[in-house]
Specification:
Blueprint: H1 2-8, H2 10-17, E1 26-31, H3 36-52, E2 55-60, H4 67-79, E3 84-87, H5 96-104, E4 108-112, E5 124-126, H6 130-145, E6 154-158, H7 165-177, E7 197-202, H8 207-220, E8 226-229, H9 232-244, E9 253-255, H10 261-268
Parallel strand pairs: 1-2, 1-3, 3-4, 4-5, 6-7, 6-8, 8-9
Length: 269
């Protein structure tokens, strides 16, 4: 409900934030990639734009880290005379110069999902507290494992080889919530060595990557009892790998972050 409330208000944010936005004006939405979470953003933005009579151009990257594609989208919106745009950054830092160029050209810049570094690079920021989300995940997992917590092996199915802010904070939040003394919430994998940690595996934040990463984790640690996944697609892929390996009997606990409608149905099923 929180996500839906923010996203369906996207066009209203444009309208309220600057008096220069009028019906038929052009605004943009730039997401990271086509997955249910960002698809929901698109639907919400389109509904708000339609209600306000705004022209909305939507751009989506080839991957979560396709910040070069996002920079090209920003350039296109500037050239088209857009009044502003919302963006879910593929990189917290690499797109900052492009955001500044857009603001210098008079465009309103709203950041969603992942904060920029510095956060002042945008006019407004609406993001999840990803560290807190991971921490709550870890706390639930620790409580759920009960007496097994002290010995259970677990794997972390993250997104990328070069982590971005979102996945780093989720990963580190999970580690802290699960009871580890992390050194820096902005640095993934800096916790002390522990035989329970099977490793951090790359999923590219999609189903196929989640399945491959889960297969790798099972090969390395066939006695896994807990798996953290960075998002819903990685969760779905991990489950499919467990099912194929005959380990979908509940002996391995899966936890994830986001909670879209499809994910809730998959979890229930």
């Amino acid at each position: 409900m929180r996500l839906r409330s923010v996203l369906t208000s996207l066009g209203l944010v444009f309208a309220v934030a600057t008096t220069s936005v009028q019906a038929a004006d052009l605004v943009g939405l730039i997401t990271k990639v086509r997955i249910p979470y960002f698809n929901a953003m698109e639907r919400g933005a389109q509904a708000a734009a339609d209600k306000l009579g705004l022209e909305l151009q939507i751009y989506s990257g080839k991957s979560h880290e396709d910040y070069e594609g996002q920079i090209a989208a920003i350039e296109s919106l500037i050239a088209a005379g857009a009044k502003g745009f919302a963006i879910a950054p593929g990189s917290s830092t690499a797109i900052v110069p492009a955001l500044q160029k857009a603001r210098d050209a008079g465009l309103l810049v709203i950041v969603l999902d992942t904060p920029t570094d510095p956060i002042s690079a945008a006019d407004a920021t609406y993001v999840t507290d990803n560290f807190e989300a991971g921490k709550l995940d870890g706390q639930w997992a620790k409580a759920h494992m009960g007496d097994k917590w002290a010995t259970a092996k677990f794997a972390l199915l993250d997104a990328f080889v070069v982590p971005n802010t979102t996945e780093t904070l989720r990963d580190q939040g999970f580690m802290q919530g699960y009871g580890f003394d992390i050194k820096d919430p902005n640095i993934m994998g800096d916790e002390a060595a522990d035989p329970r940690i099977c490793g951090h595996f790359v999923t590219d934040a999609n189903d196929e990557g989640g399945r491959t990463a889960m297969e790798q984790a099972l090969q390395k640690c066939p006695d896994l009892e807990l798996v953290y996944t960075v998002n819903e697609p990685a969760f779905d892929g991990a489950y499919q790998a467990l099912k194929a390996a005959g380990k979908d009997d509940g002996s391995i606990v899966l936890v994830s972050i986001d909670g879209g409608c499809d994910a809730m149905k998959n979890m229930t099923d």
